[in-house]
Design goal:
two-stranded antiparallel sheet; globular; single chain; six-stranded parallel β-sheet; about 45% helix; 9 helices; TIM Barrel; alpha/beta
């Protein structure tokens, strides 16, 4: 399950993060917002765990500005420990640009998080010109493919070739590959054909408040795919 940020605006209703995240980054508010999301996601996941819901990890996106924090590992450890969440129930999603930088500091942060037990994922993989061979150097638990690969399937042979190559390499390195943006059964079939291990998208369920999510989880096993 991915923790998605929404703003309940008094006049405009529910606003997705895509509409205000850039402003948050420009003003520096992304740091306190990101910390709140991380701590709240850990708190909620820990509460679900105590209630017996053990079938999923909670995934949290880490912004590029958060990555630059010297205390990122300390922040994650604090959020996990204070919430009582088992580290392996949390997955952190980093952008592909983070990997492209390839600094020793980046790799050190990933290694410390991995050793702590937190899952590491790359989000929207394939959007940049990352060398596929670089995946072997990273302590990854999952690759989430860029949704553009599934927008015009199965007609786009170039997309099929690229995704098939990524999926094959992920299998070789033992890194599960997730299809993102799945909205139709046709896209699901395509994802299975090229070897994706899981899928995420509106076909499996829309973004829900915590209370509605757990009710759907109890009654619908397909939510485990998202």
């Amino acid at each position: 399950a991915e923790a998605l940020l929404r703003w309940q605006h008094p006049d405009h209703g529910l606003i997705s993060a895509a509409k205000f995240i850039q402003l948050a980054e420009e003003t520096g508010l992304i740091l306190p917002i990101g910390e709140w999301v991380l701590r709240e996601a850990c708190r909620q996941a820990s509460a679900w765990s105590r209630e017996g819901y053990e079938g999923f990890r909670v995934s949290v996106n880490i912004s590029n500005m958060q990555i630059q924090r010297a205390d990122l590992f300390g922040l994650v450890r604090s959020a996990v420990v204070e919430s009582g969440l088992q580290p392996n129930r949390l997955e952190l999603e980093f952008s592909e640009k983070f990997i492209m930088r390839g600094t020793e500091l980046n790799f050190e942060v990933l290694a410390r998080l991995k050793a702590f037990g937190v899952g590491i994922a790359i989000d929207s993989f394939g959007a940049e010109n990352t060398s596929l061979s670089s995946l072997q150097q990273l302590p990854l638990d999952r690759l989430k493919l860029n949704r553009k690969f599934f927008e015009d399937t199965p007609d786009n042979s170039a997309n099929r070739t690229i995704v098939d190559a990524i999926s094959s390499l992920g299998d070789k390195f033992g890194i599960p590959v997730a299809a993102v943006g799945i909205e139709t059964e046709e896209q699901t079939r395509f994802a299975r054909e090229i070897g994706c291990d899981s899928g995420q998208g509106f076909l499996y369920g829309e973004a829900l408040p915590p209370e509605q999510f757990v009710e759907k989880f109890k009654n619908n096993s397909t939510i485990g795919k998202s």
